[in-house]
Specification:
By secondary structure, chain A is mostly helical. Chain A is built from 13 helices and no strands. In chain A, helix 6 packs across helix 8, helix 8 crosses helix 10 and helix 11 packs antiparallel against helix 12. The longest helix of chain A is centred in the C-terminal third of the chain and has 39 residues. Classes of the chains: A mainly alpha, B mainly alpha. Chains A and B meet through helix 1, helix 6, helix 7, helix 10 and helix 11 of A and helix 3, helix 4, helix 7 and helix 9 of B.
């Protein structure tokens, strides 16, 4: 297990280094000098030069890459070109909106998908199964930001159960904050729940055909008992992968959903940064998102190996 | 042919037809503003109503279909055009450093959700349909590379491939002449799915302003425009959203139906 973890850990480190190189150099080729952009068209050349050296833009690319990466490791993401405040602080403020939103959505999606998938698998081919499958087919086709607008129309404008947007802030109390994240989380969760329910159903159906399930039935367990005691645990492996993958979709999807609900999360930050050419913020947010995706996939790989010992020897 | 396939094909061809017809005819000029008749609900003159500038929504939906289909189609083209050769090469050189390199590069691209790629590209080159295509297209490459490699690997073990090798054919020729035709079905099905994901991605990118720019109509931007007016003109949001759902649903049903239809093994197991 340790060897497997080390091997995966090494591949995680390599992925992170390559990703940081790609992000840094892709942003480097961006036309336009941030210093001239900040000072405007009429700036004196020596003022621009002074600002360039203050921002560290006069150093070589390699030196800047190394200082960016070593800074990130110690939690120093540099200074925002536009706001002149530490990027790390800006990101961590926003992360407190985006991350809870993604996790809330992940929890909702799992809560909806598990019962739906199990129900459909247990009633394969019957009307209940067909209804769940029809609903998931629709769920996959609905763009989450459109679903979000419909939710606002129904629950905020017509029923007035929720606010139409904005974030109360965690200092107003956990309940109030979660309340303002509820509609966004539902909107994010629905399409993912549809996918997860389908995976859960098909994983269970695959397991139901296995020999050990027949043995369980022969032993005298009812279909339902066999499903709960032996089927579910084995079906969890493919489901776990999808949950891992979904986390990255939810985090990226949060960027769009935040626009619908005017939430002050990473999405708002990155779009503001793009429009003001605050490239250091863009590259840091992108790096955070990619870091989250790569790390979650690494954790899923480890979780796999814990659940299924066969995988440890295979790789 | 299954009901899914028929329904999916019907819905998809409806959208394609709307896009094609829009080249020669739309009920109104989709850019023509007519402020006195703004924000009309669907009626006999404006079948799907008008927006806040009095533009005809039906015409905008028809022309918007063009944008959605074009972006998604080219993005799938990029994904297939680069992903399939990469997947075939990786399978032909299984276990070599080239295989390893291709697959690790794939993993890396997977770590960048398509929206993040789009953000990077827009940060550099600015927003626009072309950049949206590139962003969605790049994300499609590893999808096709993986599927192709996975399917090709099992084929390389088969006797008819061995026969081709004995006959003196090289890896490239075997890949093109024997492997590719045998994985084509799988790729067509995946292509349909990626096409529908491309439509969704294009809508999302246009919604946040990273996709097609005005005056090119796009369903995503129609939704963004509708957002502030949803309380008094809900049809502005309902109609473009329904267009997206119908298109994606149609393509997904078609993909499912095609898979069942093209794969005889599945057909038997379902019975």
């Amino acid at each position: 297990m340790l060897r497997y973890a080390l091997k995966r850990g090494l591949s995680l480190a390599v992925s992170l280094v390559v990703a940081s190189l790609v992000i840094f150099f892709v942003i480097e080729v961006a036309p336009g000098d941030p210093a001239s952009f900040m000072l405007g068209l009429n700036a004196e050349p020596d003022t621009v030069a002074a600002l360039r050296s203050e921002l560290g833009l006069d150093q070589s690319k390699l030196a800047r890459y190394l200082s960016w990466v070593s800074g990130m490791v110690t939690g120093d993401f540099g200074m925002s070109y536009t706001y002149r405040t530490p990027v790390a602080g800006m990101i961590s403020d926003r992360l407190w909106v985006s991350l809870p939103l993604a996790l809330y959505a992940l929890a909702l999606s799992t809560l909806i998908a598990f019962p739906a998938g199990i129900y459909a698998a247990a009633r394969r081919g019957k009307p209940g199964d067909m209804a769940v499958m029809g609903a998931t087919q629709l769920g996959v086709a609905v763009p989450n930001f459109w679903f979000a607008m419909i939710l606002v129309l129904i629950f905020a404008i017509n029923l007035r159960w929720f606010g139409a947007g904005g974030f109360a802030g965690w200092d107003k109390g956990f309940d109030t904050a979660m309340h303002s994240l509820t509609l966004p989380a539902i909107a994010l969760a629905l399409p993912q729940a549809a996918i997860l329910a389908r995976v859960m159903r098909s994983a269970l159906l695959d397991i139901l055909g296995e020999d050990f399930m027949r043995t369980a039935r022969a032993k005298g367990l009812s279909r339902r008992q066999a499903l709960w005691r032996h089927g579910l645990r084995n079906a969890l492996i493919p489901v776990l992968t999808i949950i891992g993958l979904q986390f990255s979709f939810l985090l990226a999807g949060a960027i769009i959903i935040e626009q619908v609900f005017f939430l002050p999360g990473l999405g708002r930050l990155v779009f503001q940064a793009i429009s003001s050419r605050d490239l250091i913020v863009v590259e840091s947010v992108v790096m955070i998102l990619v870091f989250a995706v790569i790390t979650v996939n690494f954790l899923v790989d480890l979780a796999y190996a814990l659940v299924d010992p066969r995988l440890r020897s295979r790789t | 042919m299954s009901r899914n396939l028929l329904l999916g094909a019907l819905l998809s061809s409806l959208v394609v037809l709307a896009a094609l017809v829009s080249f020669i005819w739309t009920p109104f000029d989709h850019t023509a503003m007519d402020i006195p008749s703004k924000l009309q609900r669907p009626n006999s003159i404006h079948w799907l109503g008008t927006d806040h500038f009095g533009r005809d929504i039906f015409s905008m939906i028809m022309v918007g279909a063009r944008t959605s289909i074009a972006v998604a189609l080219v993005a799938v083209g990029i994904g297939m055009g680069l992903g399939i050769p990469l997947g075939l090469t990786a399978a032909a050189k299984k276990g070599s450093w080239l295989d390893e390199l291709i697959m690790r590069a794939n993993d890396l691209v997977f770590a960048f959700p398509s929206l993040v790629i789009a953000i990077l590209i827009t940060a550099i080159f600015g927003a626009g349909a072309i950049n949206a295509i590139i962003a969605i297209g790049i994300f499609n490459i590893p999808v096709f590379a993986r599927i192709t490699r996975g399917a090709a690997l099992s084929l390389w073990e088969r006797e008819f491939i061995l026969a081709a090798r004995v006959a003196g054919k090289g890896a490239a020729r075997i890949s093109a002449e024997h492997i590719l035709p045998n994985v084509a079905n799988l790729l067509i099905v995946q292509g349909t799915i990626q096409f529908s994901l491309g439509i969704l991605a294009e809508a999302g990118l246009s919604y946040v302003g990273l996709g097609a720019q005005p005056p090119t109509p796009s369903w995503g931007r129609m939704l963004a425009d509708a957002q502030t007016m949803v309380s008094f003109a809900p049809h502005l949001a309902l109609i473009p959203g329904t267009a997206i759902v119908v298109t994606v649903l149609g393509l997904n049903l078609m993909g499912d139906g095609l898979r069942d239809w093209l794969d005889p093994k599945l057909r038997v197991s379902r019975q």
